[in-house]
Amino acid sequence: MAITDLQLREVFDLFDSDGSGTIDSDEIGAVLTAFGFSKLDDDEVKALVAKYDVDFSGTLEYDEFEDLVKDRLQHTSGQAESVHAFKLFAEAKDDAAGQDPCISVQDLARVAHAIGEKVEFEKFQDILNIAPGKPYGVDEKGNSLGMTYPQWSLIMAKASKTKLQRAMEEN
Q: What Rg, from alpha-carbon coordinates, does the chain have?
């Protein structure tokens, strides 16, 4: 969801019900729910306010509020993109156990071939075997049969951190 600065300001003003120029933790919970985020309990809202309250006032001024909402929207967008990318690779496995979709060696090979990459089959198996977390299943040799979404998200998070670290080191 993209939101303009003007729209964000209007939302801030709407939820700044007492006109103080700040939003307190009671108002933050309502704002986040209005944006479609899952309802947070009081402790979660207080933790968010504490994280973004750079002047330690116990409330959020507009700039602090803007950082919070944009970070939350960006995080949600990143999750949606990750799910979409996983679905591009994964094919739902049609089995009686009703297991979740996974990315198989064949899926990795199919995508690599489609984009013109020439990678040895064993390299794809290595990727699946080193994926963190519980695999989709294993064959008689102990090789992973597929990568689940939780494994995919861990790998993507690690890749993002590594990319961020490299960028920070360059500057």
A: 22
